[in-house]
């Protein structure tokens, strides 16, 4: 009777076996230092491999990744912090030309500390300053940005600068040179009341007619100065000339009350020399005084 031959299974059959094929397209090289990392969680390792497989410019924010995978946002955020702590991610906050602050993420296929010691020359992924909106180019570096990838195709233009509105003040009815000079002197001295009211020569020229309009309405210099400098905001006085123009306009006092011309007093009766006694007397026309006219008696010839 033949003895049945029993073949003992090889030791390799008790563990994982590989059926590998050579990739010629659509593949990513991932180091064993990542896939066999002893301190990273499986979520972090898988997330790092996924990020390294993405092209540059793909959004990898927490909400974007949570919409792609079944893990929660909290778990994905924790995995990103793990990768950042072990040098597989670098996240920096950058201010764009339009004032927005965005987060830029650089993925490295080797931790930065390991690359400093055993990476070949030219293979390092150095820290460099990012000038938005040009995308960062480094080893396997998809960016997580709040901006859409299409924005990286052209340089973002800064927002157009708004020119300040022209200053408008009420004009005086009779712009006399002396009145405008008094108004300009008043404006030039406002900074003695508040240093923030130091005006340029151009602002004084523009505002002087408004002050002259107040002065010709019988508002004295002290009253005008009080109206312009009282109850100023404690801070944020970025354009003092604009504030003064506003106050000169909205606080303009009314014209003075109309005064009727008084009746012309009668002219005094002129003095005349009496033709009879040569005394002076008042009369509209030359002649004799009242005494001579009363005592007049014709002489009999």
List keywords for this structure.
mainly alpha; Arc Repressor Mutant, subunit A; 31% helix; 301 residues; two-stranded antiparallel ribbon
Question: What does this 3D model show about the protein?
Answer:
This protein is mainly α and 301 residues long. Among the domains are: 27-153, Arc Repressor Mutant, subunit A; 177-230 and 240-250, no CATH class. It is 31% helix and 7% strand. The chain has helices at 32-35, 42-52, 62-68, 73-85, 112-118, 177-188, 201-215, 221-229, 240-250, 290-294; strands at residues 89-95, 101-107, 271-273, 280-282. The strands form two sheets. The chain has a two-stranded antiparallel ribbon with strand order 1-2. It has a two-stranded antiparallel ribbon with strand order 3-4. Strand 3 (271-273) and strand 4 (280-282) form a beta hairpin. The radius of gyration is 49 Å and the shape is rod-shaped. Residues 115-152 have low confidence and may be disordered.
Q: How much helix is in the residues?
A: 25-40%
N- to C-terminal separation? 214 Å
Low-confidence stretches: 115-152
The portion of residues forming beta strands comes to 5-15%
Write down how many β-strands occur, each being a DSSP E stretch of 2 or more residues: 4
Structural class category? mainly alpha
CATH architecture of the domain at 27-153: Orthogonal Bundle
Largest sheet: 2 strands, antiparallel
Taken from the alpha-carbon principal axes, the silhouette is: rod-shaped
CATH topology of the domain at 27-153: Arc Repressor Mutant, subunit A
The top level CATH class name of the domain at 27-153: Mainly Alpha
Sketch the topology as an H/E string, one letter per element. Answer: HHHHEEHHHHHEEH
Mean pLDDT across every amino acid position: 78
Tally the helices: what do you get? 10
Name the strands of the widest sheet in spatial order. 1-2
Radius of gyration, rounded?
Answer: 49 Å
